[in-house]
Design a protein that fits this description.
Elements lengths: L1 H18 L10 H20 L2 H6 L1 E8 L6 E2 H15 E15 L2 E14 L6 E13 L5 E10 L18
Parallel strand pairs: 1-6
Antiparallel strand pairs: 1-2, 3-4, 4-5, 5-6
């Protein structure tokens, strides 16, 4: 009987101690989902107003932007420069629809699709694109969500290659 009581006491004690340990981070906390949505909205606002500084401020210091057909921009300075160069040459109109937004304590993910129109400031036809995106975020000690990785890709087919030049007389 003493052995039974000792075992029971050990099991109860272990259960009580494990309940006192750190709690698992909340999954999809509504406040975190809303905060990630605010990051998305700020990105759209920055893109549509040509505010490269606002966009860069949304990224973690070591964040990366991996835009389709562009080199990877690593860190604030590179993200700022890439967006500034784009906005110096083009006026942008970006529409974004989130398909899924998730959080798990300090990690977040936003996935969806976009439509983009870039109009050259120097004249010429507008460039349109549409595609998909995935954004990974981290929640800092201050509670602010920052983009750590932003990946997008076009869902439109690649443009056709230019026609081959015609060979001269005699097949040369």
């Amino acid at each position: 009987m003493k052995r039974y009581l000792a075992t029971l006491a050990a099991v109860v004690g272990a259960t009580v101690l494990s309940a006192c340990g750190p709690a698992a981070p909340p999954m999809n906390d509504p406040a975190d989902i809303a905060a990630i949505g605010q990051v998305r909205s700020a990105f759209i606002k920055g893109y549509n107003t040509g505010d490269a500084t606002l966009i860069a401020s949304l990224y973690a210091a070591d964040g990366q932007g991996q835009a389709n057909h562009q080199p990877t921009a690593k860190g604030h300075d590179a993200i700022l420069a890439a967006n500034k160069a784009n906005f110096d040459a083009m006026t942008a109109s970006l529409e974004v629809v989130a398909d899924a937004t998730m959080s798990n304590g300090t990690y977040g993910m936003d996935r969806g699709h976009f439509k983009l129109t870039l109009t050259p400031k120097g004249g010429g036809p507008a460039i349109t694109d549409e595609g998909r995106y995935v954004v990974l975020l981290m929640k800092g000690a201050d509670g602010a969500w920052k983009v750590t990785m932003d990946i997008d890709n076009s869902s439109l087919p690649m443009p056709a290659p230019p026609p081959m030049p015609m060979k001269g007389k005699g097949g040369k």
